[in-house]
Specification:
The complex is a heterodimer. By secondary structure, chain A is mainly alpha-helical. Chain A is built from 4 helices and no strands. Chain A is globular and about 30 Å long. The termini of chain A are far apart. Chain B folds into 3 domains: about 25-125, no CATH class; about 155-340, Rossmann fold; about 350-440, GMP Synthetase, Chain A, domain 3. The model of chain B has no long low-confidence stretch (mean pLDDT about 90). At the A-B interface, helix 2 of A face helix 6, helix 7, helix 10 and strand 25 of B.
């Protein structure tokens, strides 16, 4: 598995905003499915919380009208890549 | 009694706005009627329809088409192929309708619909019989088994008029209606599907979920706006950049609204917040303007009966009085003060569950010695919209505990945060007193650890 530093930063954000006291950010597999019955079992309420936190921290605004939303939230790797691409700055610099 | 028509709006008014590739398609009341007729023609003969359409507009068309065919809408909260398949066996002659193939399911829809933008049909003069059952709404009951609630046209047809009459300061027409609540939930059904059949509303039919969706929808409309939502989505929108124009009216229901959120939302969104109290058995029951009013007014069509421990709601259209899950008392100004819950039922993400049952499931897990779920705000912790839990399970890893929980409870009730303790501070009769749990939770330093 092995997270990149950027993935580690987004993993920390997820653990913080969702109060995942029983999960350590470093344990989130970048390629594991985040939502539904597998992986962390996150749901749409969590997606909303994550989207709000990402908007506040990186000024990246996720929209459900975007066809790719499901893909963006599929894994930590996808979510991180999306935030990196849209924010136009390196994570960690914020 | 004069039958109430399905639709009471001029054919030329705009009823919905559907996003297309380069903007929006405006749908008139007349086109809506044509779409209803087009879908009604495609529906097979039968008794029930499970409507799994993803698009809000198609869902709305199918909902009314089913009624014009004198069939019954089955509106489950869980919208997957497996649930539809179960309903197909429980309810005779059921058709499963969708607007796209069912994702991640081995079950197939009986009918995949595509609307025809060029369809023509009769204008909506159809008036269902008052006693006709038009929908069955399902809620996750406190025992875990979904409970069904039957809705007749008399109920839905009259109540939409009652609701509109009580809308605080209706904005100037036409009004764009943006909603984050699903149309198959009783609150969404009333406020986003039925209200537009009589009120000058244009239903925005995008996938409105994230703050950015709501803001774009509002920014792209040069008129009044109404936002039908929940405290959870309202909090999210209040934390995001505000839309470029005021939201004239925010309607919130499904969970209590904190005063701090009301003030923040009214300022940030330049809005008035109307709060609705209701239950799936009946629908919307009472309202207040939380900025100015601490107490509630019940819609005047209901009769209230106070017994020692519960408030019952009665209406000519209800087969039997409905006991509310909350206790109210009459105040001097003729309004009602919400005193609190009569049961331990909690509501998360629009789903209801009993804390006692959740605790039973938690302590029933192999390796869990003791444990308790709690609602953060009742223990002086910030509301997170989720339940928390404290667990005593010395031999289970966090991962094992989480996997076991995920197998036995609905994901919306998965506890966040989940604290581990050596023991729970139970009293001599092994009860976990509220104060003792509050003190234990305070020791964890709040939800963010």
């Amino acid at each position: 598995m092995g997270q990149t530093p950027e993935q580690g930063e987004i993993a920390t954000l997820i653990v913080e905003v969702l109060n995942l006291t029983d999960v350590s950010a470093a344990d989130i597999d970048p390629e594991a499915i985040l939502f539904e019955d597998s992986g962390l079992g996150l749901d749409s309420i969590d997606a909303l919380e994550i989207a709000v936190a990402i908007a506040e921290r990186y000024n990246v605004h996720i929209s459900a009208e975007d066809e790719a939303t499901r893909e963006i939230f599929a894994t930590l790797a996808n979510l991180t890549a999306h935030v990196q691409q849209e924010s136009g700055v390196r994570l960690g610099a914020a | 009694m004069t039958p109430r028509p399905l639709l009471a709006r001029p054919a030329g008014e705009t009823l919905a706005r559907v996003p297309v590739q380069d903007g929006y398609r405006q749908i008139s009341v007349g086109q809506f009627c044509a779409d209803i007729a087009h879908v009604a023609n495609q529906l097979p003969a039968g008794l029930h329809v499970v409507n799994l359409c993803q698009s809000r507009y198609t869902f709305m068309v199918v909902f009314f088409a089913v009624i014009t065919r004198s069939q019954i809408n089955l509106l489950p909260g869980k919208r997957d192929g497996e649930t539809a398949a179960r309903l197909r066996t429980e309810y005779p002659r059921t058709t499963v309708v969708s607007d796209q193939p069912l994702a991640q399911s081995r079950v197939e829809a009986d009918l995949i619909l595509a609307l025809d933008p060029g369809s023509h049909g009769e204008a909506g003069t159809f008036a269902p019989a008052p006693e006709a059952v038009v929908a069955i709404v399902f809620t996750s009951g406190s025992t875990g088994e979904p409970q069904s609630h039957t809705k007749t046209w008399a109920m839905l047809g009259e109540w939409r008029e009652v609701h509109w009459r009580y809308v605080a300061h209706p904005p100037a027409a036409p009004i764009l209606l943006v909603a984050t609540v699903p149309p198959w939930h009783m609150y969404g059904l009333e406020w986003t599907m039925l209200l537009p059949t009589i009120a000058p509303l244009i239903v925005h039919c995008g996938p409105d979920f994230f703050p950015r969706d709501v803001t774009s929808a509002i920014n792209e409309f040069a008129g009044s706006c109404m936002f039908v939502t929940t405290p959870l989505h309202l909090r999210a929108l209040t934390r995001a950049p505000a839309p470029g124009r005021p939201i004239d009216l925010v309607v919130s229901a499904t969970a209590p609204l904190e005063q701090s959120l009301v003030l923040a939302a009214e300022t940030h969104l330049r809005s008035t917040v109307l709060e609705i109290y209701g239950c799936s058995e009946v629908g919307s029951l009472a309202y207040r303007l939380p900025r100015h009013e601490a107490n509630w007014c019940f819609f005047d069509c209901f009769e209230l009966r106070f017994t020692e421990s519960v408030v019952e709601v009665q209406h000519a259209y209800l087969k039997a009085p409905v006991a509310l899950a909350d206790l109210f008392s009459l105040t001097e100004d003729g309004r009602y003060e919400l005193l609190g819950r009569t049961t331990d039922v909690v509501k998360v993400g629009g789903k209801r569950e009993s804390l006692a049952r959740l605790n039973g499931l938690l302590t029933g897990i192999d390796g869990v010695v003791d444990g308790a779920f709690y609602l953060p705000e009742t223990h002086d912790l910030p509301a997170t919209g989720r339940l928390g839990a404290v667990v005593v399970a010395p031999d289970l890893s966090d991962r094992q505990l989480r996997d076991a929980l995920a197998q036995c409870i609905d994901p919306v009730f998965l506890p966040r945060p989940l604290f581990r303790a050596v023991a729970l501070p139970r009293d001599a009769t092994s009860k976990l007193q509220h104060a003792a749990l509050t003190e234990l939770l305070a020791g964890f330093g709040g939800p963010s650890g």
